[in-house]
Amino acid sequence: MLTYTIRRIGIAIPTLILIALTIFLLLELAPGDPMAQVPLTVPAEVKQQMRLALGLGEPLPLRFWKWSVQVFWIEPQVFVDWLTRDSWLLGWLPDTNLYDGRLRVISWQTRGPVFDIIVQRLPQTLWVVGLAYVVGVLIAIPIGIISAYRQYSWFDNAGTFVSMIGFSVPPFFSGVLVIVIFSVQLGWFPSIYDTTHRVTDWDSFVLQFKQMIMPVMVLALQTTAQISRYMRASMLDNFGQDYVRTARAKGLRERSVVLVHVLRNSMIPVVTVVALGVPAIFGGAIITEQVFKVNGIGQLFITALQANDLPMVLTVAFIFAVLIIVFNLIADLLYGILDPRIRYD
């Protein structure tokens, strides 16, 4: 498995470079100019100096090369220095001091390092999107198991109905709907997510919990609908296999047959959906964060698009591509753990 992992990582590096080049070229072909928002009173020669300062006057291959060096070489050095200096995990190690002060990826909009801004926004996204995905998976797997075991029962029919709603209703509609019902009409929860709120006591914790309920509920509904259907279908497919009849004929308890033998084999296709759903849920959070005004990665991406902040847009889109490749690799490795017959060497 180690050889397979190293080989996949070796393939992933040129793949990521190709993806980054594709995104870079698409952004270059897109209409818009970051200097369009500069006031008309600014002289033309000053605008030209500003364009040169932003790197807009350099050839396209040189700009992509500089961005690649910054992302693949300079930013990892900054990250390693942070790990050995400020992190609680490796902060006890001697400082590496790898970063020598060279130019990092700079946002055209904020004039600050792009990765520092992403790190500032990431906790908000993880709190809402990450928690919603975990809740959705934890709810979907038991629903899928029970629905398959009690096929065509009232529970299965109810689960199918809820799943169809989750599939049919997009987050931008369900988000507005729950705001109108639970915030405007009933007044139970705040309609806007306050990202500046800090939990210091029980009352502040209750307020944080209340403002997270609606965005988490909207995202978790979509996740639950998708994964529960895959779980149900995979369980039903394995219930009809010969090894299940053999296990029951040997006198194994029904709990062992379902939760040990059938569940383990049924998780193989579900693992793919769960692993590849992580990047997808981050992409879906772009809309949800706009609806609930969550100041996270999704809203940062939309703001950068509106401001023609190409370094920020390119970097965030590249991070989404990295997530897809990483979790795809994790899914492949989990296959070998769930099914001993799968070998990678």
TrEMBL record:
Keyword Magnesium assigned: no
Segments passing through the bilayer: 9-27, 126-149, 161-185, 205-225, 270-292, 312-338
Assigned GO CC terms: plasma membrane
Keyword Cell membrane recorded: yes
UniProt cross-references to InterPro entries, sorted A to Z: BPD_transp_1_N (IPR045621), MetI-like (IPR000515), MetI-like_sf (IPR035906)
Record key words, sorted: Cell membrane, Membrane, Transmembrane, Transmembrane helix, Transport
Domain called ABC transmembrane type-1: residue spans: 122-331
Membrane topology, from the record: Multi-pass membrane protein
UniProt-annotated location(s): Cell membrane
Gene Ontology MF term list: dipeptide transmembrane transporter activity
Family: Belongs to the binding-protein-dependent transport system permease family.
Protein name: Peptide/nickel transport system permease protein
Organism of provenance: Hasllibacter halocynthiae
Organism ancestry: Bacteria, Pseudomonadati, Pseudomonadota, Alphaproteobacteria, Rhodobacterales
